[in-house]
Design a protein that fits this description.
The chain has 351 residues and is mostly helical. Helix content is 65%, strand content 1%. The chain contains 15 helices and 2 strands. Strands 1-2 form a two-stranded antiparallel sheet. α7 runs parallel beside α10 and α12 packs antiparallel against α13.
């Protein structure tokens, strides 16, 4: 799956999962530009667009369309993580496409931002690169190969609010309260419901895959916290993530640490992962989500994004031939509801 604010976190990175909270309340942040366009308002605000021409979509309809495309991309990430196990591509190949394509497309814009990259503190950059770069990507792909698309779509984005809240509490922020606490509790219960049937009788592969997906979710939470420490716009954030990640992957492939099958892979597999991972997850998701926030506001966008796990389950049936189990049918809706509650912005107190 990154900061207008914690709720709008996914708008900066091309993230693969819904936006997350960052403590007891959703923090408002400064505005940011979307790919050189108009500024994105801080979390919780709704941009006011000029009156459209007759026949054009209203700002609300534009926001809904952008959000729907974003959720589809997030779902495609989970589906591709599972599909990689039956693909002619290796995880290293998918990673090269994921981090390389955005750099090629955005090369001129990233070159203009080169001085901004130099001003990013090393600690924040390390959180971003580790949290959403090669470690996160390989953990999500490998965990998906051991479980199912439903597990990837539910655990990776679903557990992020819990991990972020834990990081905020460790940093001295207060404990979550009210609806946010209820939402975090629902997420935890949903994950337990998801994996419980694999404890007795013991299924080591699924439990190991679930554990790896939890690691991926924790890394994404670290990335979310790190991206709140930088002031880059969405395009700059993509560059800060992809450039070091591509360099690391190139070293791992050239030294033989990670095998590659890109030269002999099927053209259809290359095209699929280029579109889904490179253009979709790597480039379009963050920019579209930022646009949706500008049109709809952060709260409505984040709640809409919580539908991603449910969509993954529905799409995995016809696309991957997965049949949702009782555990999936019980756990995924609980996680989706928990994410929606955890991302709700508290209403301001009235006099």
């Amino acid at each position: 799956m990154v900061s207008v604010s914690s709720v709008a976190g996914a708008s900066r990175d091309g993230a693969a999962g819904p936006a997350v909270v960052d403590g007891p309340t959703v923090a408002d942040g400064p505005t940011t530009a979307v790919a050189g366009g108009p500024a994105v308002p801080a979390a919780g605000t709704v941009g006011v667009a000029p009156a459209g021409r007759p026949g054009r979509l209203s700002p609300q309809a534009q926001g809904v369309a952008a959000l729907a495309l974003t959720v589809l991309i997030w779902a495609a990430f989970a589906l591709s993580a599972r599909a990689l196990s039956t693909s002619s591509l290796k995880p290293a190949d998918a990673a090269l496409l994921r981090f390389g394509v955005p750099l090629v497309v955005l090369a001129p814009a990233l070159w203009r931002r080169r001085r901004q990259f130099a001003s990013v503190r090393p600690a924040a950059a390390a959180k971003i690169v580790c949290g959403a770069g090669v470690p996160f990507f390989l953990a999500a792909m490998y965990g998906g190969s051991l479980t199912s698309a439903a597990f990837v779509g539910a655990i990776v984005p679903g557990m992020v609010p819990l991990f972020v809240s834990a990081l905020m509490v460790a940093a001295g922020r207060g404990l979550p309260r009210g609806g946010q606490a209820v939402g975090l509790g629902l997420i935890a219960l949903g994950v337990v419901a998801l994996v419980w049937r694999y404890v007795l009788p013991l299924n080591g592969h699924v439990l190991a895959g679930s554990g790896i997906l939890l690691v991926a979710s924790g890394l994404w939470a670290l990335y979310t916290v790190g991206l709140k420490e930088v002031t880059l716009d969405p395009v700059g954030s993509i560059g800060l993530l992809c450039l070091p990640s591509l360099a690391v992957m190139a070293v791992l492939v050239l030294t033989g640490v990670l095998p590659t099958g890109l030269a002999t892979a099927a053209g259809s597999d290359i095209a699929l992962f280029l579109v889904v991972q490179g253009l979709g997850v790597g480039l379009c998701a963050g920019l579209l989500y930022a646009f949706a926030i500008r049109r709809l506001g952060a709260e409505r966008s984040s709640v809409g994004g919580s539908l991603s796990p449910v969509l993954v389950v529905l799409l995995a049936v016809p696309l991957l031939g997965e049949s949702p189990t009782a555990a999936v049918l019980a756990g995924v809706p609980m996680i989706a509801a928990g994410v929606a509650l955890a991302n709700r912005r508290p209403r301001p107190a009235t006099a």
